[in-house]
Amino acid sequence: MTLSMYQASAPVFIQGLTGLGVVIDKAAAHAAERKIDPAALLQARLYPDMFPFTRQVQIATDFAKGAIARLAGVEFPTYEDTEASFEELKARVEKTIAFIRTLDAAQVDGSEDRDIALVRRGETTIVKGQAYLLEQAAPNFYFHITTAYAILRHNGVEVGKRNFMGAA
After folding, report:
1. Would you place residue 167 in the very low, low, confident or very high pLDDT band (cuts 50, 70, 90)?
2. Measured by CB atoms within 10 angstroms of the end CB, which terminus of the chain is less buried, N or C?
3. Closest among 75, 78, 39 to 58, alpha carbons compared
4. What is this structure's pTM?
5. What domains does the chain contain, in order, with CATH numbers?
6. CA-CA distance, 54 to 132, in Å (whole number)?
7. Per-residue pLDDT averaged across 139-155, rounded?
8. How far apart are CA 3 and CA 160, in angstroms?
9. Under a CB-based contact definition with an 8 Å cutoff, are residues 45 and 151 in contact?
10. pLDDT tens across 96-115, in order?
11. CA-CA distances (angstroms) from residue 102 to 6, 44, 90, 152?
């Protein structure tokens, strides 16, 4: 049995984003229970030259929606990156999951050899769909959701592997 491009992308992104939503909820509850200013967690980072929690969530959602849309050959929604609360970040995650669910397997499957144009710093690079998913999109997605999780855990939010995987 082979693994399709859809199976290797959409459900994986949805599971990761579901876990991200769980840890966002736990962070909000942690801040409320301990009377911590939510900004302390929203702007927390692992190291001064790294992005804060809020930006990690934004980038993770961007990789998920951008990857699945590129593979499907459709436009992806753009978000303003103005989230300033746990509620707004959770809404962004849910909006991204909803977008992914609008695409079906027929739109994504067969994209292994599709040319994917990536523009970075004004330079366009063309990569094939499978290489893009496995070597760029998925690793970047996991980097940012893992970093978001690590920021919260480092700051005392009681999250565990089950939460990261999407269990409440």
Report:
1. confident
2. N
3. 78
4. 0.96
5. 10-164 (1.20.120.450)
6. 25
7. 98
8. 29
9. yes
10. 999 999 999 999 999 999 99
11. 12, 33, 19, 30
